[in-house]
């Protein structure tokens, strides 16, 4: 049975390995706690060549950095919890962070007010990474939304946990509004998932196919048309249907093979096998795709872009990497999050220049109003630095998510200093914190 038929029939990141391991219990569930402390980078890299580690920076409230404290960091800090070099991936959410190890285990730190850590339903937050409860030990991909989280197994099974008030976990209409432990999305039984992207109150995923591209599904809150299902507004401006409680195939993209997806606050985006970019969601998108036959509530192609490889969505901005390693951005430019040298809103994709004219971009991630990209093994950040305008005491503001030693805004890509002999292999931006997986050369 094809995916279209099936869905139609179902209603429609250390310097040394001295991070200590301790054991604890919570709600009768076995928990592994990685006690963490900040460490410096190794100067002599010969002994740790090719070893991976994780660095985090930005807002430290609720322990979201996983450094064993509540302190904010204006520069990258190495987390000792994963000092054995086994970290594969990091995912930064609203006020929490997920860590994926090479062995397929997932750890979490930060705020847990909606169960987004997947460790306990009575633990408000944790400053040390705790192992997520109840997941198989063969996880290969993780994703963190504002209040919810997900993990994908080697065989493509999707597990989700956290806030579910709008159906963003895809567990059905009868599921609770808060799910504190990972739950398998049973609706997707027999449908392997390749990747998932989580927004503020919605989720979007791509199925796994032999061709490495697949169908695109979305679920959760449908406000502003961010699910791509054509939800219409009433005369009073309210959506007639706001949520999808189980994964639903985006009919407008049926037959289109999708290879990459991204979810922002009120919009979503995806790229197909031909390098075409499709967007759907908030009003800011409407000005970009305002032509006959296009609406914000269904996917619209952005024809101004060259062949594209990767897409990322922030709160109200979007970034795309082309096959040639060029970076294009558009949308709201609050605090300079587009990296174009000013703060003017951009309605048509504009190429980010500066260092990217010399070196191509390989990865990009968007936070609320800041952006980070990997180019030639280095990280560049720009946008909102986190300053609130009233509190500027060093290392104690609410920001520093750019990792540049202060909390002011930058309107152009600026190099983050990790020292010598390291290269960055993965980057993730949260609301106002950032994480990276690095490797010693």
UniProtKB/TrEMBL annotation:
Pfam families tied to this protein: WD40_RLD (PF25390)
Alphabetical keyword list: Guanine-nucleotide releasing factor, Repeat
Chain positions of RCC repeats: 52-103, 104-155, 156-209, 214-274, 275-324, 325-377, 377-440
Keyword tRNA processing among record annotations: no
InterPro entries (alphabetical): Ran_GTPase-activating (IPR051553), RCC1-like_dom (IPR058923), RCC1/BLIP-II (IPR009091), Reg_chr_condens (IPR000408)
Domain RCC1-like residues, every copy: 54-434
Keyword Repeat listed: yes
UniProt name for this protein: RCC1-like domain-containing protein
Organism: Lactuca sativa (Garden lettuce)
């Amino acid at each position: 049975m094809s995916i279209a038929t099936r869905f139609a029939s179902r209603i429609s990141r250390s310097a040394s390995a001295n991070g200590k391991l301790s054991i604890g219990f919570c709600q009768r569930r076995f928990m592994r706690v990685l006690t963490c402390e900040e460490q410096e980078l190794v100067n002599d890299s010969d002994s740790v060549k090719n070893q991976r580690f994780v660095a985090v920076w930005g807002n430290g409230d609720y322990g979201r950095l996983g450094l064993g404290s509540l302190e904010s960091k204006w520069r990258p800090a190495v987390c000792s919890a994963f000092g054995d070099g086994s970290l594969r991936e990091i995912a930064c959410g609203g006020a929490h962070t997920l860590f994926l190890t090479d062995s397929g285990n997932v750890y979490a730190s930060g705020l847990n007010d909606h169960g987004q850590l997947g460790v306990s339903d009575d633990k408000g937050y944790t400053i040390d990474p705790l192992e997520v409860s109840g997941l198989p030990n063969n996880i290969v991909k993780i994703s963190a939304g504002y209040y919810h989280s997900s993990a994908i197994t080697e065989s493509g099974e999707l597990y989700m946990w956290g806030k579910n008030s709008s159906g963003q976990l895809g567990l059905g209409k009868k599921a609770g509004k808060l799910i504190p432990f990972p739950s398998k999305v049973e609706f997707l039984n027999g449908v392997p998932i390749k990747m998932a992207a989580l927004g503020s109150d919605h989720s979007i995923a791509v199925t796994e196919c032999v061709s490495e591209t697949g169908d695109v599904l979305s679920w959760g809150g449908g406000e502003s048309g961010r699910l791509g299902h054509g939800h219409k507004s009433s005369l009073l401006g309210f959506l007639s249907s706001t949520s999808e409680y189980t994964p639903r195939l985006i009919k407008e993209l049926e037959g289109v093979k999708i290879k990459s997806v991204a979810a922002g606050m009120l919009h979503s985006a995806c790229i197909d096998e031909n390098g075409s970019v499709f967007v759907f969601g908030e009003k800011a998108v409407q000005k970009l795709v305002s032509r006959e036959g296009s609406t914000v509530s269904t996917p619209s192609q952005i024809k101004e872009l060259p062949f594209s490889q990767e897409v990322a969505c922030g709160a109200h901005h979007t970034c795309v990497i082309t096959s040639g390693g060029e970076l294009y951005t558009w949308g709201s430019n609050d605090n300079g999050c587009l990296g174009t040298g000013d703060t003017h809103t951009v309605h048509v994709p504009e190429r980010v220049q500066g260092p990217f004219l010399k070196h191509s971009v390989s990865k990009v991630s968007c936070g609320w109003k800041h952006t980070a990209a990997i180019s030639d093994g280095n990280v560049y950040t720009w946008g909102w630095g986190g300053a609130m305008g009233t509190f500027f005491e060093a290392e104690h503001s609410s920001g520093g998510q750019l990792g540049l030693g202060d909390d002011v805004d930058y309107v152009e890509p600026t190099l983050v200093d990790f020292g010598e002999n390291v290269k960055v292999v993965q980057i993730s931006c949260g609301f106002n914190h950032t994480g990276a997986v690095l490797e010693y050369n």
